[in-house]
Amino acid sequence: MKLMIVDDSSMVRGRVARIVAQGRLPGIAQTAQARDGREALQIAQRLRPELVTMDLTMPELDGLACIPPLLELLPDASVLVLSALDDKSTAIQALRRGARGFLSKPFGDDELVLALMDLMDGRR
């Protein structure tokens, strides 16, 4: 499965990419990284990832606004929100817009691996 990492923080993008590169998520190959929702939509149209990690607070187009058009473009994609906004209403909003999971920042590597594995299992 192809993974796209969408976050305005290069540190978070690098961390997720490192976990994938370490082979902790068999069956997942990182395909792209995007700094905001606009870039994510452009990349998604070209590379068609099946899994997406999505930050909510980003310049240009934030995660909540990006999820619906992303899923319109890729209806079978699974979106895992990674956000420092950890209040329940934000998580519910993201899930209502089509995200399939929510993980609050800061998160541990094991938490991220488990959350992505859950998304993969849901796709099988």
What does this entry look like structurally?
- With 124 residues, the protein is of the alpha/beta class.
- The chain has one domain (2-123): Response regulator (Rossmann fold, 3-Layer(aba) Sandwich).
- The chain has five helices and five strands; from the N terminus they run βαβαβαβαβα.
- It has helices at 10-21, 37-47, 63-73, 88-96, 109-123; strands at 2-6, 29-34, 51-54, 78-83, 101-104.
- The chain has a five-stranded parallel beta sheet, sandwiched between helices.
- α1 links the parallel β1 (2-6) and β2.
- The N and C termini lie close together (11 Å).
- The model has no long low-confidence stretch (mean pLDDT 93).
Summary keywords:
124 residues, alpha/beta, globular
Topology (elements, then pairings):
Elements: E1 2-6, H1 10-21, E2 29-34, H2 37-47, E3 51-54, H3 63-73, E4 78-83, H4 88-96, E5 101-104, H5 109-123
Parallel strand pairs: 1-2, 1-3, 3-4, 4-5
